[in-house]
Give the backbone structure.
Amino acid sequence: MAFKTQSEEQDAMSDINVTPLVDVMLVLVVILLVTAPLLTQSVKVNLPKTTTATPDVQAQPLQLGIDAQGVLTLNKNPVADLPALEGLLKAELSRNPETALHLYADKAVDYGKVAAAIAAIQHAGISKIGFVTLEQ
């Protein structure tokens, strides 16, 4: 009877056999190369002919400016006060329900005036408000 000694058991092979891995990868590459042209086949369909349609051009957003003295301008036209601004915005909103507004406020303006203008905009029913700033 032949018995193995402890030193013979420790001589196990520590290298990974990559040959089966390479074989599997080559088979996968061949499968990919064979099936790829089959995936690009198309079906011929006679589509109906139509006239070209022009896309709807959305109206430019309103521009509300507040200068350093607190003077309000709507689209570069002076506005007397906040109730007048609210009336103008409601009239514009009745013409176009998707009205948007860009707010330009000078950095020297008191925050309270800007907050009051935002409140008037929201009371008028405009919910799309953009704050315009300069890039530094």
The domain at 62-131 is CATH 3.30.420.270 (Nucleotidyltransferase; domain 5). The CA atoms of residues 72 and 79 lie 5 Å apart. The beta strands are 62-66, 72-74, 77-79, 100-105, 128-131.
